[in-house]
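Example with several molecule types.
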Amino acid sequence: ELQRIESSKAGLTIGAGVSYSAAYEALSSAYPSFGRLLDRVGGDQVRNMGTIGGNIANGSPIGDSPPPLIVLGATLTLRSHGGSRTLPLEDFFIAYGKQDRRPGEFVESIFVPALPAGERFAAYKISKRRDEDISALLGAFRISLDGDRVKAARIAFGGMAATPKRAKVVEAALLGALWNEGTIRDAQSAFDTDYQPITDWRATGAYRLLAAKNLLMRFFLESTGETAQLRRFEEVA
Ligand SMILES: Cc1cc2nc3c(=O)[nH]c(=O)nc-3n(C[C@H](O)[C@H](O)[C@H](O)COP(=O)(O)OP(=O)(O)OC[C@H]3O[C@@H](n4cnc5c(N)ncnc54)[C@H](O)[C@@H]3O)c2cc1C
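Resulting structure tokens for the full complex:
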């Protein structure tokens, strides 16, 4: 039962036992950027064996699937012999190594709501190698515009804090503002309030912050159609 993928108008329900490879088709057709990200998780062996449920339950701050799932508004269903409960995925991660999972509970499924028409979503993984490398950081972005203005923004990162975490100060800096380069430049400084990333052997804290700010700019540029050069680079990288 844990290996089922169910698709409806409302979204995708992915059983906790579904491997990355098995989830690829459904996720990449609903959220193309998620597909490109899955292609960067481990290598073929890891993608064929590793599950999205395990990636979440593990609670790592550098797991690749939580940031995009949080941005997409995913919910998690946990089950025990006493029944099941559902919570927003972002609330599952309490602190480093501590998740909201009670004794006897296991992750049963993840529900990913459909992306409403007109909303833009992208996820970018930064690692030293293309394959078989854990993220130094991973940014996921989702934006909804009302004309030229930002109606809603959800941004989440891995590798920037002790848990996968929303950039709520950056989101607030974007909300209601014009979707233009000036707004992006102003909002970039808000990352300093949202995150104080550590330095480890994957990256320095300063590199992580700078890369996060640049990913916001990349998301903006791609949203305005300036994608050719970036995409070409991504395909080569
Ligand atoms: C070579 C290699 C490369 C990797 N590359 C990446 C990468 O690029 N990106 C990335 O994010 N991760 C990477 N990983 C880490 C890992 O393989 C993945 O996160 C994978 O998704 C884990 O899934 P799993 O099913 O193997 O979980 P497991 O490793 O079997 O489980 C992880 C933890 O979660 C628990 N668990 C598993 N399923 C459930 C459940 N349904 N309910 C409750 N608890 C559960 C287990 O008991 C365990 O404590 C890599 C690992 C290796 C070995």
